[in-house]
Design a protein that fits this description.
The complex is a heterodimer of chains A (118) and B (116). Chain A is an all-beta fold. Chain A is built from no helices and twelve strands. In chain B, the strands form two sheets. In chain B, strands 2, 4, 5, 6, 9, 10 and 11 form a seven-stranded mixed beta sheet that branches. Chain B has a four-stranded antiparallel beta sheet with strand order 1-3-8-7, with no helix packed on it. The chains are: A mainly beta (118), B mainly beta (116).
Chain lengths: 118, 116
């Protein structure tokens, strides 16, 4: 069963505008983590931002912020002031397993293709 | 820093042939992962290893085997390659959940495998 859902296969945004990429997840663990990765056309995976399930504040990293709504099981990525270089695939991921155990599973969603328009 | 190194980067196999994808990390990480990426399907977890000496199945383990040779190395083996295994394979590593700070997952550059 798919545990990470990204409902937007493709998105367009005007340069300098903000954009929100959606991610919902499903887990029965109390302790988990959520990630966003960027994959440009060159193929490398670039870490953007991380949110732990017990973090009370939403994570921010520069122009990236994660809108974490635990009760709704959503972890949307917000990119402010979009740039042409933001055009890429964006993947939401979830890490399950308790800290200190040997269970450390990380799964990814299907991704959203973002295109920034000049 | 080398980070996560995968070999080979490109490989063409005939159906039924076997091969091993090698992965090594130099960051002293506990956890290592193998993913495959197909168009429209994101990255799907094949196998993972949360520590030296342990391996676990991911989402799509059929047709693959893995070996966590030591803390640095995690190999992926295709015993009898099939065209459905044509994909881009990514190895990744992380300090692991034994450390609260070990949350970032580092990826290799990918291995392009074609089975004809």
């Amino acid at each position: 069963a798919q545990k990470i859902t990204q409902t937007q296969p493709g998105m367009f945004v005007q340069e300098k505008e903000a954009v929100t990429l959606d991610c919902t997840y499903d887990t029965s663990d109390q302790s988990y983590g959520l990630f966003w990765y960027k994959q440009p056309s060159s193929g490398e995976m670039i870490f953007l931002i991380y949110q732990g399930s017990y973090d009370e504040q939403n994570a921010t990293e520069g122009r990236y912020s994660l809108n974490f709504q635990k009760a709704r099981k959503s972890a949307n990525l917000v990119i402010s002031a979009s740039q042409l270089g933001d055009s890429a695939m964006y993947f939401c991921a979830m890490r399950e397993g308790l800290i200190g155990t040997s269970y450390d599973k990380v799964i990814f969603g299907p991704g959203t293709s973002l295109s920034v328009i000049p | 820093n080398a980070g996560v190194t995968q070999t080979p980067k490109f490989q063409v196999l005939k159906t039924g042939q076997s091969m091993t994808l090698q992965c090594a990390q130099d960051m002293n990480h506990n956890s290592m992962y193998w993913y495959r990426q197909d168009p429209g399907m994101g990255l799907r977890l094949i196998y993972y290893s949360a520590s030296e000496g342990t391996t676990d199945k991911g989402e799509v383990p059929n047709g693959y085997n893995v070996s966590r040779l030591n803390k640095r190395e995690f190999s992926l083996r295709l015993e009898s390659a099939a065209p459905s295994q044509t994909s881009v394979y990514f190895c990744a590593s992380s300090e692991g959940r034994t450390s609260p700070a070990g949350n970032t997952i580092y990826f290799g550059e990918g291995s392009w495998l074609t089975v004809v």
